[in-house]
Design brief:
Protein name: DUF177 domain-containing protein
Strand content: 25-35%
Number of helices: 4
Helix content: 10-25%
Pfam family, one: YceD
InterPro entries: YceD (IPR003772)
Shape: elongated
Distance between the termini: 94 Å
Organism: Piscibacillus halophilus
Number of domains: 2
Length: 179
């Protein structure tokens, strides 16, 4: 999404609406497995040499379920405000304002940044059931609660019966009344 600064100045407030392809977010090192084209709608205003873009970004991304790793569609609706200026001094004094040294502003990197900030830490699938969960792996098994209780009781019973052979002479220490 590229905007001519002169056109924005002439037509301020400048309304815009477009569908943008941001599928390169899938190849970045994040959890986004798939992302649809996003809808961007907003308004640009001008005050002197400062440009303010207020816009919303709507779309759907596919993320892995935190429990089962199955695909979970996640709809997002981002409200964003980005400020730009052609005055370098103003941008250096305020980190919230981006400096523009060209006549054309590309809003796409800022849209991507706002989408990445919207990615949740975890999502859960509504269809996540015990059948979908991976039940075993290298050196581990997933047990149901009753299976766990049975295994625990079996280990406790085996632990009582076994005596370390090195300690077998101490087994009758308190039973010996001659000492």
């Amino acid at each position: 999404m590229k905007f001519s600064l002169q056109k924005i100045k002439r037509e301020a407030p400048y309304d815009f609406e477009d569908t943008v392809n941001v599928d390169e977010l899938e190849s970045m090192d994040n959890d986004i497995r798939n992302i649809t084209d996003v809808k961007v709608k907003g308004e640009a205003t001008v005050q002197g040499e400062s440009f303010t873009f207020r816009y919303t970004v709507k779309g759907t991304m596919t993320l892995p379920c935190a429990r089962t790793l199955v695909d979970v569609p996640y709809q997002f609706d981002v409200q964003a405000v980005d400020r730009f200026t052609t005055v370098e001094y103003e941008a250096k004094n305020n980190e919230d304002i981006h400096f523009i040294n060209q006549e054309v502003l590309d809003l796409l990197p800022y849209i991507k940044e706002n989408i990445l900030l919207e990615v949740p830490i975890r999502v859960y699938s509504d269809e996540a059931t015990i059948d979908n969960i991976v039940s075993e792996g290298s050196g581990w098994d997933l047990l149901q609660e009753d299976e766990h209780e049975e295994l625990k009781a079996k280990h406790e019973e085996e632990g009582k019966e076994k005596v370390d052979p090195r300690l077998s002479s101490l087994k009758n220490f308190f039973n010996d009344k001659n000492d």
